[in-house]
Amino acid sequence: MRWSRPGSNGMDKILIKKADGTTEFFKEEKLRNSLKRSGATPKHIEEIVSHIMSEIDTDVTTDEIFKHAFDLLHKMGGSVAAKYSLRRAISQLGPSGFPFEQFMSRVFNELGYRSHSGVIVNGKCAEHEIDVVAENDNEVIFMELKFHNNFGLKSDMKVALYVQARHDDLIKNNFGHYADSGKKSEFWLVTNTKFTSNSIKYAKCAGLKMVGWSYPSNGNLQEIIESSGLQPITCLTSLTTDEKNYFLNKNIVLCKTLEQKEHLLQEAGLDKNRANNALDEIRGLNELG
C-alpha cells in the first residue's frame, strides 16, 4: 500500500481513486461519518482518522483506505468492523445474484411486508418474473434487482430503459391485478452499487423509482437495510470465505439465521470456540443496531 505523510498542500489537496476509476479529493468528514455510522466510539474514530491522515498519500484508492480502516477496527475488537464492511459484504452475495434477492426479500419481511422472490406477474403483453414483490395492507412494491459483485460498476441508462418498459407493460394490466384492491403500486429498480448520471436523469423524467447504495439521499439501499436490522453472513469477520460460501450455497444469507440455528455452525465444520466467536460477533452486531 502506498502510504506516506502528505506534503504542505494539506489534506484537502490529496486526490484518491474511487472504485469506478474516477478521482476525488479526500474528505476527512466522509471517513468520520462512515466510522460513526458503523458504531465506532469517538475515541476509536479519532485514533483511526488520525492514523490514516498521517499516512495517506495522493493516488491511494478508496479501497485501500477502507481496508486500512477496517484492519484498525478489527484489531480494536468487537463487531464494528463487520458493520463497517456492510457495503462490501452485500457485493459478496454472489455471483449469481440470487442470494441478494433472498436477502432483500427478508429485509422487507423484517420491515413489515409480505415479501417473495421470483414472482411471475402478468403484464398486458407478456409475463414478467419479478425479482422481489413486497406487499402490505397499503402498497405493493415490485423490484427489479441489479446485482454487481464489483461495487465500482454502475447501472446505466439501458438498464433503466429496460425496467421502465417492464413497468409500462405491467401497469397496463394493473400490475397483474395486484393493484385491483386500490393499493399503491410501484416498480423499483434496485442496485447494490450506484447509477450513472444519465440513468438518474432519465428516471427522474420518466418517473421511475430507483434505489441504489447511496441514492436517493433519503430512502437509499443502505438506509433500508440498516433500518431492517438484518446483516448478511458475508459481513462476519469470524468466518472464512469458504465457510461463507458454504452457507450461501445452502441459501443461508442472514446472520440472524445462524443465531437462531446454532447447529449450522457446527455442521459447517466450526469447532465450539470458533462457533462461539461467530455468535458473539452476531450478537454484537445486533447491539450496534
Give the arrangement of secondary structure elements.
Layout: E1 15-17, E2 23-25, H1 28-37, H2 42-55, H3 62-76, H4 80-84, H5 86-91, H6 98-110, E3 114-122, E4 127-135, E5 139-146, E6 154-155, H7 157-171, E7 184-191, E8 194-195, H8 197-206, E9 209-211, H9 221-228, H10 241-249, H11 255-260, H12 263-267, H13 272-288
Parallel strand pairs: 5-7, 6-8, 7-9
Antiparallel strand pairs: 1-2, 3-4, 4-5
Helix pairs in contact: 1-2, 2-3, 7-8
| Main sheet summary | 5 strands, mixed
CATH C-level name of the largest domain: Alpha Beta
End-to-end Cα distance: 32 Å
Give the strand tally: 9
Total number of distinct structural domains: 3
Element string (H = helix, E = strand): EEHHHHHHEEEEHEEHEHHHHH
Q: Provide the structure class.
A: alpha/beta
Helix share, percent: 40-55%
Strand content: 15-25%
| Coarse morphology | globular
